Amino acid sequence: MVPRSIFLLLGVAAAAFAGCDVATRKTPAANRPGPARGADPAHKAPSEATPAQQDRRPRIIFLGDSLTAGLGLDVEQSFPALIEARLEKAGYSYKVVNAGVSGDTSAGGLRRLEWALGEGDPKVLVVALGGNDGLRGLSPPQLEENLASIIEAGQRRGLTVILAGMEAPPNFGPEYTAAFRQTYRDLARKYKVPLIPFLLQDVAGDASLNQPDGIHPNERGAQRVADTVWQALEPVLKQERATQ
């Protein structure tokens, strides 16, 4: 059972979204695809190694929206960055790639999947999309189709996929909310992937863990999200280690 406070928060988020997509307009350039602000590829020395060449560790890709990008936080405070720090502390040699883009949807994530996987050696794909789909009222079958395509593409490349669920706001009625939630469970069962039932578990609805917008986790909230994700990720990494 999802606490009522979560639905109240999601209702506020939906109302804010109806006015304007604030998260999209405030996204730092560093959270968008393409070169970082100020980068000038034309002036890179021919002999200079690319980041992928410099860091050959296998990669964990976090494909998501502003919650993954860490909107309103410093780069090192986003939950993927916290996961990378935890990996190093636990003795795992992985490179974390934060492929979160503010305002993104499941369709947007599908379109940029190949960019997100990029070069190097991707091993794990954490799919954390759907929040903006719920705010837009996207039909659960369309959400399922988009997420299924992402999962299938990852599995074809031999990646372990972890699916992070989201909750829809109550604005579209209880039937929509239930169908939206069930979509993630059905996909996890069909493709036999680990499921994080709700990415913002124990964070959504708690003002002390969110920024003033009431939508995006603050530094403490991001820590809590990292804890939730780690519970699903660590068993995967232990299994990977055991098979090496």
Please give a structural write-up.
It is a single chain. The protein has 244 residues and is an alpha/beta fold. It has a single domain (4-19, 56-243), classed as 3-Layer(aba) Sandwich (Rossmann fold). The chain is 48% helix and 11% strand. The chain has 11 helices and 5 strands; from the N terminus they run αααβααβααβααβαβα. The chain has a 5-stranded parallel beta sheet with strand order 2-1-3-4-5, with helices on both faces. It is globular. 38% of the residues are buried. The model is unreliable at 12-49 (pLDDT under 50).
Key features of this structure:
244 residues, 5-stranded parallel beta sheet, globular, alpha/beta, 48% helix
Describe, in short, the structure shown.
The protein has eleven helices and five strands. By secondary structure, the protein is an alpha/beta fold. The protein has one domain: Rossmann fold.
Given the C-alpha coordinates, what overall shape results? globular
Oligomer: single chain
Q: What is the terminal-to-terminal distance?
A: 39 Å
Please indicate the count of domains: 1
Mean pLDDT: 84
Pattern of helices and strands? HHHEHHEHHEHHEHEH
Q: What's the SSE blueprint?
A:
Blueprint: H1 4-19, H2 22-26, H3 51-54, E1 59-64, H4 66-69, H5 79-90, E2 95-100, H6 106-111, H7 113-117, E3 122-128, H8 131-136, H9 140-156, E4 160-164, H10 174-191, E5 195-196, H11 219-243
Parallel strand pairs: 1-2, 1-3, 3-4, 4-5
Helix pairs in contact: 5-11, 9-10
